[in-house]
């Protein structure tokens, strides 16, 4: 019965057309564009939310996962790094383009 309820909950009572816009990136060669979709009433929004609710707990258990900067700082808090002659370590993370720059196979291996 619970499964049936979840399936029924994936049906929208009213549909609206999604809005597709393209943000042009003028500083890149070829003036490429980045498509954005306003889809809060798109037919796939409920299934997307359901898949997100199923996958989110699994993704957070991956060893390569960190949620944000404070989470990363907590993870490295107990790490001991080599101390040298005034040497400093610098950590940086590029999250803004993380998903489109990771090869699919490498993501599966992680």
TrEMBL record:
<feature type="transmembrane region" description="Helical">
    <location>
        <begin position="7"/>
        <end position="27"/>
    </location>
</feature>
<protein>
    <recommendedName>
        <fullName>Reverse transcriptase domain-containing protein</fullName>
    </recommendedName>
</protein>
<keyword id="KW-1133">Transmembrane helix</keyword>
<keyword id="KW-0812">Transmembrane</keyword>
<keyword id="KW-0472">Membrane</keyword>
């Amino acid at each position: 019965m619970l499964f049936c309820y979840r399936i029924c909950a994936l049906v929208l009572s009213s549909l609206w057309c999604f809005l597709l816009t393209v943000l042009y990136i003028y500083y890149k060669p070829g003036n490429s564009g980045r498509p954005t979709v306003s889809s809060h009433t798109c037919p796939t929004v409920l299934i997307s939310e359901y898949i997100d609710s199923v996958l989110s707990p699994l993704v957070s258990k991956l060893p390569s996962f960190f949620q944000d900067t404070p989470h990363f700082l907590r993870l490295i808090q107990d790490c001991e790094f080599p101390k040298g002659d005034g040497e400093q370590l610098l950590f940086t993370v590029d999250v803004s383009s993380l998903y489109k720059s990771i090869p699919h196979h490498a993501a599966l291996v992680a």
